[in-house]
């Protein structure tokens, strides 16, 4: 699984609309409204680099209210949470 973070700026009056639309986009697991340089942060979990490329270049380009993005690719996840267990619904190893 490929994890990435997309930092997003959107038109001020459309931030909530963009956030809702992002949250329902395949590959985006979470969207955060944040303070600071960016308006939104999208957490992306996809199977491959090709899936990420499609999401960023094809899917996000359909969002006219997004004015700027910056994509960060995670090399590894360091967390107290068991991320694999959280995202492997119905898959049990025996």
Strand content: 25-35%
**Spans with pLDDT under 50 lasting ≥5 residues?**
none
Number of domains: 1
* Straight-line N-to-C gap: 21 Å
Main β-sheet: number of strands, strand sense, barrel status?
A: 4 strands, antiparallel
Give the SSE order as H and E letters.
EHEEHEH
- What global shape is seen? globular
The CATH architecture designation is 2-Layer Sandwich
Q: Structural class of the helices, strands and pairings?
A: alpha+beta
Count of DSSP-assigned helices? 3
CATH superfamily: Lrp/AsnC effector binding domain/regulation of amino acid metabolism (RAM) domain
CATH T-level fold name: Alpha-Beta Plaits
Query: What's the arrangement of strands in the largest beta sheet?
Result: 2-3-1-4
Task: Give a count of the beta strands, DSSP E runs of length 2 or more.
Answer: 4
Radius of gyration, taken over Cα atoms and rounded to an integer in Å: 14 Å
Q: Provide the CATH top-level class.
A: Alpha Beta
Overall mean pLDDT score?
Answer: 89
Highlighted features:
94 residues, Alpha-Beta Plaits, 4-stranded antiparallel sheet, 3 helices, 4 strands, 26% helix
Per-chain topology:
Elements: E1 2-10, H1 15-23, E2 28-33, E3 40-46, H2 49-59, E4 66-73, H3 83-86
Antiparallel strand pairs: 1-3, 1-4, 2-3
Word description of this protein:
26% of the residues lie in helices and 32% in strands. The two termini are 21 Å apart. It has a four-stranded antiparallel β-sheet with strand order 2-3-1-4. It has 94 residues and is α+β, with helices and mostly antiparallel strands. It has helices spanning 15-23, 49-59, 83-86, and strands at residues 2-10, 28-33, 40-46, 66-73. The chain has one domain (2-85): Alpha-Beta Plaits.
